[in-house]
Design brief:
- 78% of the residues lie in helices and 5% in strands.
- It has seven helices and two strands, in the order ββααααααα.
- It has helices at residues 17-30, 34-57, 62-77, 82-99, 103-126, 129-147, 151-171, and strands at 2-5, 9-12.
Length: 175
């Protein structure tokens, strides 16, 4: 991987997480076929699922980290603006990544959101109220599993949510 410094030249990157994050973000924004999209969802389940497992088993500040997710969910429940709802949806998933306290999981997971940001915003702009309510219920299932300290149930709830979100997007013609 190459790092370009303006006015200086291009150099082999030194393993800086920001450079890796930019490369993953660029790659994820360039893919647009169905297989790559399915692969990306599967990878998100692995990354966010790992973050949820770590959070469910965590003893350090777990309650405060779960409460941040609950606060975001409560904001989603009361939000009528689809664009803001989409931002909150992304914020929920990014909070999961940040809560796991692992720099690599956090960095790779966040890099994937560069692609999803536009898709999520577009999907929520077209979504019905029922679709947004389904999203809230799916996020709530993740939180309930975390409260029960059941990382596997949280991962399964995440997988169900991402699969349902993909199906909703396909119904609206978004891939």
């Amino acid at each position: 991987m190459i790092e370009t410094i303006s006015g200086s030249g291009s150099y082999v990157a030194r393993g800086n997480l920001d450079v890796i994050s930019k490369a993953v973000a660029t790659y994820s924004s360039l893919i647009n076929d169905e297989k790559a999209s399915n692969d990306l969802v599967e990878f998100r389940v692995l990354i966010e699922g790992a973050a949820l497992n770590r959070l469910a088993r965590s003893e350090r500040d777990k309650q405060a980290r779960v409460e941040r997710l609950i606060d975001i969910l409560e904001d989603m429940r009361g939000e009528s603006d689809p664009a803001v709802f989409g931002e909150l949806d992304s914020k929920f998933h990014i909070q999961i990544l940040e809560s796991c306290n692992n720099a690599f999981i956090n960095m790779i997971g966040k890099a994937l959101y560069s692609h999803y940001q536009s898709c999520i915003g577009h999907a929520h702009a077209m979504a019905t109220l029922g679709m947004r309510e389904d999203t809230v219920a799916e996020h709530d299932a993740i939180i309930q599993a975390l409260i029960a300290s059941d990382g596997e149930a949280a991962r399964l709830a995440l997988e169900k949510h991402l699969s349902a979100a993909k199906e909703r997007s396909e119904l609206m013609g978004i891939h």
